[in-house]
Specification:
Rossmann fold; 480 residues; two-stranded parallel ribbon; 4 domains; binds glutamic acid; 11 strands; 44% helix
Length: 480
């Protein structure tokens, strides 16, 4: 049997991190087994659909490197892969169940259902449809449908006994039938419900393994009944534990937790996020932490999946991203960092700055704040001038800066090597120590404890005028 997995998002929003992880595991499992990874868009709930979401989901999956073997755009033998494009296909299956007595048309109006729902709520009960329309004889039902009366098709769930299924991950799960509602298979708008289309398509697309979030665990017994009613073989279910924001709540866009695209927009690298997310609920069984996508595929096993929820830890992701950033070649880094630099400091030597920043930032979005001191000298504490090892303090810094100023003023061709040569030469000639001059100068020019680059690089980037202005300003403030 060839493994076929699918990622089946509903286009109701962007690719959240739990979704990315589901897609990733479905992809990894298929690839590991030489199988097929399918993308199917479950868009039959028109009310919840967000415009443009399908395109965004596809775009995000591509950025993650999860190319689908079958699905929208690429096609395949089981298409179309967008459910609304398959709309005509579901009703005959629903009618098959009606004919066999496993389902029935229901004509109850929304008013009646709302009333019943209200009653149940007042009594503190969960609403369950009372099967009223089950007693409508089929030929009468067909007559009413032909006459144009709106209707849905409901699954006739047994009211006694239990229904069970085995999840590879969670084991044997048994549910009492009396808890189950007669779910709607076909809606009044002629479209299938998400549950029905999901089952029909998993069957028609010959999906062998369903990997999906535990939030769908509770609908699986109903699916089981559908498979039985059709006499179809069930796929193997593997429900994945939740991705949590902390120990109390699930990661969610509504609470401001980032989606995959948000992270990319914040300057995280797609490869690093994929690597981090893959390890959120799965482990390779050894100490390795860094994986390319092919390496993840190679290492993936279902046994490595964790049974407990995992917590998304942005600090850990940032650390991992930093490792990825440090491994980028300079060209690669500059290609990504360039726009952040140019946006913060238009007209500055972006490539020069990129060389200073390469290996120093964990996330690209840290670049603006890291170099903003070049645009405007930040407020700072004069205690920064105090450096034990360099033997500098606020007082002798005045003198060091007063020493450096004329040297800087004397540099005619303002390049970094020229600034450096002039300073180092002047320091050596005067028998001073480098640190005793360069430390106060770097503080005067940056107002920061840590900077990308040292005093001479910063002086070059600031230009002569700004450099001397900042040095003068520092002398004035220290002399106050
Ligand atoms: N369409 C469902 C979703 O939006 C997926 C359900 C499944 O994978 O079976 O996440």
């Amino acid at each position: 049997m060839s493994v076929r997995t699918r990622f089946a998002p509903s286009p109701t929003g962007f690719l959240h991190l739990g979704g990315l992880r589901t897609a990733l595991y479905a992809y990894m499992f298929a690839k590991k087994n030489g199988g097929t990874f399918i993308l199917r868009i479950e868009d039959t709930d028109r009310e919840r659909e967000v415009e443009g979401a399908t395109e965004r989901l596809k775009y995000a999956l591509k950025l993650a490197g999860l190319d689908w073997d079958e699905g929208p755009d690429v096609g395949g033998d089981y298409g179309p892969y967008v459910q609304t494009q398959r709309r005509g296909l579901y009703a005959p299956y629903a009618w098959k169940l009606v004919e066999s007595g496993a389902a029935y048309p229901c004509f109850c109006t929304n008013e009646r259902l709302d009333e019943e729902r209200g009653k149940a709520e007042r009594d503190g009960q969960t609403f369950k449809y009372d099967k009223r329309c089950k007693s409508v004889p089929l030929n009468e039902a067909k007559r009413r449908i032909d006459a144009g009366e709106p209707y849905v098709i409901r699954l006739d769930m047994p009211t006694e006994g239990t229904i069970a299924f085995d999840d590879i991950h969670y084991g044997h799960i048994e549910v009492e039938c009396r808890q189950l509602d007669d779910i709607i298979l076909m809606k009044a708008d002629g479209l299938p419900t998400y549950n029905f289309a999901n089952v029909v398509d998993d069957h028609l697309m010959e999906i062998t393994h369903v990997l999906r979030g535990t939030e769908f665990l509770s609908s699986t017994p109903k699916y089981n009944f559908l498979y039985k009613a059709f006499g179809w073989e069930k796929p193997i279910y593997i429900h994945l534990p939740l991705v949590m924001a902390d120990s109390t709540r699930k990661l969610s866009k509504r609470h401001g937790d980032p989606t995959f695209e948000d992270l990319l927009n914040e300057g995280y690298l797609a490869d690093a996020v994929v690597n981090y997310i893959a390890l959120l609920g799965w482990n390779p069984g050894d100490e390795r932490e860094f994986f390319t996508l092919p390496e993840l595929v190679e290492a993936f096993t279902l046994e490595g999946l964790s049974k407990s929820p995992s917590i998304f830890d942005k600090t850990k992701l940032t650390w991992m991203n930093g490792e990825y950033m440090r491994r980028l070649s300079f060209e690669d880094f500059f290609a990504r960092a360039g726009k952040y630099i140019e946006e913060t400091l238009p007209g500055k030597d972006a490539e020069y700055l990129a060389r200073l920043l390469h290996g120093r930032v964990d996330v690209l979005s840290q670049i603006p704040q890291t170099i903003d001191f070049l645009r405007e000298l930040p407020e700072y504490d004069s205690a920064l001038y105090v450096h034990k090892k360099m033997k500098t303090d606020e007082k002798n810094s005045i003198e060091a800066l007063a020493f450096a100023l004329p040297i800087l003023e004397g540099v005619s061709d303002w390049t970094e090597p020229a600034v450096k040569d002039a300073l180092l030469m002047g320091i050596a000639n005067a028998g001073r120590k480098n640190g005793a001059v360069l430390w106060p100068l770097r503080v005067a020019l940056s107002g920061l404890m840590n900077t990308p680059g040292g005093a001479t690089e910063i002086a070059y980037l600031l230009g002569k005028e700004e450099t001397t202005a900042r040095a003068n300003k520092a002398i004035a403030r220290l002399s106050d």
